[in-house]
Design a protein that fits this description.
The protein has a four-stranded antiparallel sheet with strand order 1-2-3-4, with no helix packed on it. Strands 5-6-7-8 form a four-stranded antiparallel sheet, with no helix packed on it. A four-stranded antiparallel sheet has the order 9-10-11-12, with no helix packed on it. The protein is an all-beta fold. A hairpin with a 4-residue loop joins strand 18 and strand 19. The protein is built from no helices and 26 strands.
Length: 319
């Protein structure tokens, strides 16, 4: 049964077409990447309290995934349409607008450069690649020196990266019909994996139904994945299934609360809503109508984000 929410619990902050977004650690600002499936090269800083765009920076050609450093002082944004034979990621200082471009040579078979990016706690970043039909390493960028390196283990194509709040652990989910789910540690590389997972809606030129729908709690001991609707532990061993209560086809995005006591699920078909469940029992404790769905972007990824220091969440109906 839907749970009644206080007036003003959910409100529209900004409207538009967004490829990706992320919240500042204090929950005061949301950074959005605008565009569509072909173009879009603007990063905006939105003041959540007022809904006003307080900074607005355009660079690159076709921007994609974004990641914010734990300090909140810099953003990394991937280029979806780099010059042939290259891979490009930009670093933006959101308070000054200064942009640094990091460029490396694309591997054979690359098609579109980098797919996703995630800052690590030590200031480095990992990036996944667009290499249709091929398994390739993750790319590691040292943002201090600009040097690129690769991991020893190969990962599937177009992997979505989801970092824990501490940015010490990152979930890696390839976009494929059959895929493995990986847990990447900033210290030890790939430290766990769940094998033989299945997404029947991936491939054949169709947008994956739940690829990229995943979440990791701040402590790293709870992991949720959208295709299987499993909740895993830190070893990526399944602990329970949400499928008995929540339809597989409606999973659009997951996010854990800062304390890990809530799992927020962006779900719905003709109508989109956020469902909050208690991670002790997984009973519904909150229900927030959002909006009718908009046309999908180039992939299903981060449609929700939750700030680390305040209980504030941002959600977009384009997912």
């Amino acid at each position: 049964m839907p749970v009644t929410q206080p007036v003003g619990a959910l409100r529209t902050v900004q409207s538009g077409t967004f490829i990706d977004m992320t919240l500042s650690p204090d929950g005061q600002r949301v950074y959005t990447v605008s565009g569509n499936t072909v173009s879009g090269n603007t990063v905006s800083t939105v003041d959540i309290a007022t809904g006003a765009i307080v900074q607005h920076y355009s660079f690159g050609t076709s921007l994609g995934a974004v990641s914010l450093a734990a300090s909140g002082n810099s953003l990394l944004v991937v280029e979806r349409s780099p010059t042939s034979g290259t891979q490009v990621v930009y670093r933006l200082q959101p308070t000054t607008g200064d942009v640094t471009t990091f460029t490396t040579t694309a591997p054979a078979g690359s098609d579109g450069g980098f797919f996703d990016v995630s800052y690590l706690a030590d200031g480095r970043a990992i990036l996944s690649q667009v290499t249709p039909g091929a398994s390739v390493p993750l790319v590691v960028l040292d943002t201090l020196t600009g040097n690129f390196s690769t991991t020893t283990q190969t990962i599937g194509d177009r992997s979505t990266l989801t970092a824990s709040a501490s940015q010490t652990s990152v979930l890696v989910q390839p976009s494929s019909i059959f895929f493995n789910l990986y847990l990447y540690s900033a210290v030890g590389g790939v430290v766990a994996q769940a094998t033989g997972l299945y997404d029947p809606y991936a491939g054949a030129g169709l947008p994956p139904a739940s690829s990229g729908v995943q979440a990791i709690s701040a402590s790293g001991d709870l992991i949720a994945q959208g295709t299987t609707q499993y909740v895993f532990n830190s070893n990526l061993t399944p602990q329970l299934s949400l499928a008995t209560d929540y339809s597989y086809l409606t999973a659009r995005s997951f996010a854990f609360s800062p304390s890990g006591d809530r799992l927020y699920m962006l779900v719905g078909g003709s109508d989109i809503h956020v469902v909050a469940s208690n991670t002790a029992t997984y009973d519904v404790v909150g229900y927030y109508p959002v909006a009718p769905p908009r046309a999908r972007g180039p992939r299903k990824r981060r449609a929700m984000a939750i700030s680390c220091k305040r209980r504030r969440m941002a959600a977009t109906s384009r997912c």
